[in-house]
Amino acid sequence: MPGPDVVEGGAPPPRRTTRALAVLLAVALAGYAAYAAVGAQTRDSTPPHSRHPRNPPAASKSQAPWPSASWPCGTKALLPIVGSDQPVGHPEGRLLIGGRAQVYVDLSTGDVAGISGMRHGDATVAIRHGPRSTYLLAKRLRHCTYTRSRIYRLSAGSTVTATEISTHGQADDLLAGPNGVWTVRFPRRHPFTGVRLEPLGGGPQVRLNPYPASEAGYPVAATEDGIVVARGDGPHGAPRLLLLYGDGHLRRDYGNAWVYGATPGGTLLLGRGRCDTDRCELSAVDDVTVGGGDQTRGPYSVPAGRRIASDAAIGPSAVQAAMLLSRARPDSRWRLDAGLRPSDVAVLDLDAGGWTIVPGLELPPGATPSLAFDASGTWVLVGVAAGRQVRIYGWRPGMDGVTLLAQALGAPGGAPVMRVLPAR
Questions:
Q1: First to last CA, the chain
Q2: Is the pLDDT of residue 14 over 50?
Q3: Which residues pair with 139 in a beta bridge?
Q4: Strands (E), 21-119
Q5: Percent of the chain beyond pLDDT 90?
Q6: Which one of 33, 166, 184, 327 is at 20 to 30 Å from 66 when CA atoms are compared?
Q7: CA 348: distance to chain centroid?
Q8: Do 414 and 368 form a contact (C-beta atoms < 8 A)?
Q9: How far apart are CA 175 and CA 179, in angstroms?
Q10: How far apart are CA 211 and CA 93, in angstroms?
Q11: Cα–Cα distance, 213 to 228 (Å, whole number)
Q12: How many other CB atoms are there within 10 angstroms of residue 328's CB atom?
């Protein structure tokens, strides 16, 4: 059963209806300073999700305030409204959970064990799967402030062990793909001096120098054929997507689009149109190549009245994508400022095009949960902040609510960094 920091509520019945930074790199810097991880092999390129009135009317006094709890470091968080159900079977694989809790969960049994070899006081801010290993970026956490960075390589046998391989004082993220792993460093003094990518294990650095100066670039994915970079500001604020060689030279121009998700195998989930409204059109581009031989699935329309409210997690076979969709209307049970709407986790079938709303999990406005699929691609995993803990919920088709899979110590960034380990 969930602890006292989670609200059990009557979740609405499921409705079956068939994003990687903001425009300027300065916004990206602010986002990374908070280290609210999201995970997929993407950076946060989601457009603005809502427009709020400057002077919203007061909420009704008859409504209850949305439940909340204290986070570490003196902040507060709005809690999810949870409707539980008994699991149908068990998810597969082992789930790494970062933040202050350096643990992994055997999803088939629910057993939780620690990741050995990490220094006390390190907090995980990114986990990436490289060509031969899984890599973890941790930062020293002192008095609710992140300091020096360390990079660990994980060995996953019967247990999970971390080996420190590098110390980077200013590494902000990791970028990984089938051809390598890079540390990502954002400029500290001026947002237009360029992002630096440094390969682990040595090799030439890549500096994403902005040209012109107003078009600061940032990496969103690494594929077999190069690094996908988002740059500048196009129609409706969408950045321009470029495919670069490993040395930073241009290979291909994809036009303007938001990147909501990406896989190391080369699948990009793109959004075009008015993605700050419900008029956003999604498409999945597979096998990103220089010769233009991509295969495109879609387009997929966002359900009427809803908006995309997060990056997407793409399943292991690239046939499903999970993301947040804000609701068309506020929840009348809770007191919220006008224009703020809760969200649901939704699963998009990238082959058939249909949407499924995950029942039993109502997320508050502004929530940034971590999303993933289990090793089988059947279960959706949702990591949420719940006061001083993080909790991992799971759902699969056939369930009328979610089930609690694991809980661990929280982190100042909110939702946990999490990643499913590849099969042994």
A1: 31
A2: no
A3: 123, 149
A4: 64-65, 68-70, 76-78, 81-82, 94-97, 103-106, 112-114
A5: 31
A6: 33
A7: 16
A8: yes
A9: 11
A10: 44
A11: 19
A12: 12
